[in-house]
Predict the 3D structure of the following.
Amino acid sequence: MLLVLLLVLVAHVYWTPVPVGIKESWKLRLLQLLCFLVFGGAFLLERVGVGHSITLVGWYTRSVERIMKNLTCRRDKKDLMRVRDVTFDGVPVRVYEPGAEGGLRRGLLYLHGGGWALGSAKEGSYHENNRMTAKKLNAVLVSVEYRLYPEAQFPTQYLDCLNAAKHFLSPEVLAKYGVDPCRVGVSGDSAGGNLAAAVAQEISNDDNMSVKFSVQALVYPALQAVDFNTPSYRQNQDMVLLSRPLMVDFWLQYLGLDRSFKDHFLSNRYQAAILPQLRVRVDWTALLPPKYKDGYEVVSWHGQTRHESRVPSVLQDVRAAPLLASSAVLARCPRTYVVTCEYDVLRDDGLMYVRRLKDAGVAVTSEHYEDGFHGCFSLTLFPFRFDVGAKMLRRYICWIDDNL
């Protein structure tokens, strides 16, 4: 039995393809194996009634991150960073305040990724990267611990982030932390990039907000659930860490839809019910550069389905899918930085958002990593530190430093 299990694990590691363009592929294979064991074990434990698989995965990853932090992180005694866990309008946040004085400082709101179901502002690379970002920028950084699936579903995650953002942007709170109201940004990766984009749109178009974000920095954001057959979804459908089926699962969980919808998502079977004026906003044939769409054809469905009447209302909500926002809404968004990776199902979401923002007149910096893959922005700590992730973090900090 043990021999069979070993053979299955070896087969999983060596038969699941890793693109040749990815450097340090051996390390990615090890991480892939770990994820396979964790998710597989959590699924089995769920089946015997121990708990929800997502909750179990979250508990395990947080435990491992704490152990690795204790083993590898040695804080410089001269590091005067003040880290506090407080609440902003009832939402838990972690606030990073550099020790250096000298007038008003910049402010940055950070929203972590994890498919709206995993991740934490307080653990692992998110904590260390945010600490580094705050120190390098001499900025007050607020990382939001928004509620996660399965305890929460849309729009709870979005509303947590929006409420924390409005609280942070209030003149009284900015004054309390010594933040310049003209130099506040919002950022996030993956699902956090989705939340950051949605919050930035809402704040930018809220005339009751006296202080607005000056910049938004989005790292491989998830921006739409209308088309799961874009070129990047098909090119990277079996990619490790974030496959096409797994991304669909995350969307179904976030939107509160039953798993019976999965095949409909994968085949674009509900597209006929999406309003035409919204479909054009995710039309990759018009929005993507030629190099990314050549060789691919549109996958569309024109029939009727029994789910059709139930799906569109949530899929067409721009708070869940920021790419669906109108040009008038996008035109009021702040200066933007968008990171995309070649080996990422979400690549085209980011590239289409870049095009739509530029067409709306927004100043946008688009940075694409030919050797990048989804999740690498968070892979900056031993033992799964990737050079591309460290480089991405450095350049992300540099852009914010130059533009905020």
About this structure: Residues 1-9 have pLDDT under 50 and may be disordered. Strands lie at 82-88, 91-97, 105-111, 139-144, 179-189, 215-219, 335-343, 364-373. The longest strand covers residues 179-189.
